[in-house]
Amino acid sequence: WSYALLDEADRAVLRRVSVFAAPFTATAAWAMLAGWPPAADGAIGAALARLADQSLLVTVADADGTRYRALETVRQYGAAQLDRADEADQASVRHLGWCLGAATALGTPDGAGHAWRSAFDQLADELRAALRWAAARAGRRPEAYRLAIALAELTFARGLPGESQRRYEQAAGLAADDALAAAALRCAAGAARSRHVGDDAFRLQLAAADAAATT
Q1: Can you tell me the distance from the alpha carbon of 175 to that of 164, in angstroms, rounded to the nearest whole number?
Q2: Cis ω before 161 (30° cut-off from 0)
Q3: Nearby residues of 196 by Cβ (< 8 Å), 6 or more positions away
């Protein structure tokens, strides 16, 4: 009922931001939705504010400003409307592109301080969701490989070597050639060595050598 009362542009914004997996900023929404009618680029922030006023989005305040999120029932309804409008793939492609850019912008500092860790934690679920979507689609393997490598590097910097290892192994499976797969497996072995658990490092070094031998 509330969705039906919205104008066309606000309905478009609500259903399209349902692709976000975690609270998002107006800047992130603009980056993902820019140039996608009927929502005008300069009106996206105002649309988010109106949706929050109508309790279709919830505002979350943090040190970096205001973020928005949809309650799960609203997000699921938005996702259903996204499918009905035949916009789900386009929204996911745009979300994937935004995630790749955001991961690059975040980078991996030599010493991950509190601000960096907080920024990663706010972004991590978006990267994981985008990677799940891209990895399941053959036509998106190049982007999935890039995102898997980025997430592997970021999680290692965040002190999550187990996930880093898994992401490097995932990247190896998505790699376009054996040389890239071998490089990813060597990095996975490095992450495994840092964990000091089991024989994963040895197994991955052998797999990297096998992949390299076929190049």
Answers
A1: 16
A2: no
A3: none
Q: What is the pLDDT of residue 110?
A: 67
Find tokens 């490095």 and name the residue: 190
**Three-state SS at 94:** helix
Helix (H, G, I), strand (E, B) or coil at 24: strand
- CA distance readout (Å), 47 to 38, 57, 76, 150: 12, 10, 19, 32
Q: Torsion angle of alpha carbons 126, 130, 133, 138, nearest 10°?
A: -170
pLDDT tens digits, 23-78: 999 999 999 999 999 989 899 999 999 999 999 999 988 877 899 999 999 999 99
Non-local (6+) Cβ contacts of 22 within 8 A are 69, 122, 123, 125, 126
Tokens representing 13 are: 């914004």
- One-letter-per-residue 3-state SS of 161-189: HHHHHHHHHHHHHHCCCHHHHHHHHHHHH
Dist. CA 155–CA 120, nearest whole Å: 9
> What does the pLDDT look like over 129-188, one tens digit per residue?
999 999 999 999 999 999 999 999 999 999 999 999 999 999 999 999 999 999 999 999
8 Å CB contact between 48 and 70? no
* Helix-, strand-, coil-residue percentages of the chain, each rounded to 5: 75, 5, 20
The pTM of this model reads: 0.94
